[in-house]
């Protein structure tokens, strides 16, 4: 509901307002800026942890986060904010990355927590969560997509650069939804730890994928997908 025609009350258009008034109102509702969305997968973490608080980053994971932070800083962009999953591994990754981006505010959200977004097609034998997970996690992850991935607000004057630190399943689902690909294909994509995925959302609502899971800035011996 961000298409300009959806933001005005067409019923109010009458003989007195005319086409010129409608055009003026539509122009007032049009986005002017481009949004750059950088989706970062958290770094490698301790898989043996039973609870979320125990699933902290490994020493290699901390190295990966440093490399990702350095890469983002080297782009020379004025980042507006870092929004991250409230899970431990994403929070720790964010803390390390943010050291390279001083002054950029950080926001934690439960919407970006890891989960099962939608039953994958084709199915896989090694990962079969309970059906209820798709209903619980899927609704939340879809809400994250609708809340964060959209064209700029009409009031936004300048292009924005935003970082989202979250999880592989969330990022893969968001990419499919943003590109209007069948979301059931999300599990066909693969993302390295600490990777950068760059989406561009134009004022007209069109979306482009500039990079998917980029880790070309990491030495080969630092790259993992766990």
UniProtKB/TrEMBL annotation:
It is found in: Mitochondrion outer membrane. GO terms for cellular component: mitochondrial outer membrane. InterPro entries: His_Pase_superF_clade-1, His_PPase_superfam, Mito_Ser/Thr_phosphatase. It comes from the Eukaryota. It catalyses: O-phospho-L-threonyl-[protein] + H2O = L-threonyl-[protein] + phosphate; O-phospho-L-seryl-[protein] + H2O = L-seryl-[protein] + phosphate. Its main location: mitochondrion. Its EC number is 3.1.3.16. GO terms for biological process: positive regulation of mitochondrial fission; programmed cell death. One of its GO terms (molecular function) is protein serine/threonine phosphatase activity. Pfam families: His_Phos_1 (PF00300). Keywords: Hydrolase, Membrane, Mitochondrion, Mitochondrion outer membrane, Necrosis. Belongs to the phosphoglycerate mutase family. BPG-dependent PGAM subfamily. PANTHER family: PHOSPHOGLYCERATE MUTASE-RELATED, SERINE_THREONINE-PROTEIN PHOSPHATASE PGAM5, MITOCHONDRIAL. This is Serine/threonine-protein phosphatase PGAM5, mitochondrial. It comes from Leptocoma aspasia.
């Amino acid at each position: 509901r961000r298409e300009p025609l959806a933001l005005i009350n067409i019923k109010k258009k009458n003989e007195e307002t005319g086409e010129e008034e409608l055009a003026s109102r539509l122009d007032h509702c049009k986005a002017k800026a481009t949004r750059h969305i950088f989706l970062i997968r958290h770094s490698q973490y301790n898989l043996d942890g039973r609870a979320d608080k125990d699933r902290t980053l490994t020493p290699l994971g901390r190295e990966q986060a440093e490399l990702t932070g350095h890469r983002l800083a080297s782009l020379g962009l004025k980042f507006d904010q870092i929004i991250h999953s409230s899970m431990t591994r994403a929070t720790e990754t964010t803390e390390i990355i943010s050291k390279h981006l001083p002054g950029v505010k950080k926001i934690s959200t439960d919407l970006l927590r890891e989960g099962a977004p939608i039953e994958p097609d084709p199915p896989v034998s090694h990962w079969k969560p309970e059906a209820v997970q798709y209903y619980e996690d899927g609704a939340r992850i879809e809400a994250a997509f609708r809340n964060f991935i959209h064209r700029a607000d009409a009031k936004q004057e300048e292009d924005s650069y935003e970082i989202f630190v979250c999880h592989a399943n969330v990022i893969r689902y968001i990419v499919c939804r943003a590109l209007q690909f069948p979301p059931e294909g999300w599990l066909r994509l693969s993302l390295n730890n600490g990777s950068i995925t760059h989406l561009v959302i134009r004022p007209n609502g069109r979306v482009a994928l500039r990079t998917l899971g980029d880790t070309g800035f990491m030495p080969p011996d630092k790259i993992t997908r766990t």
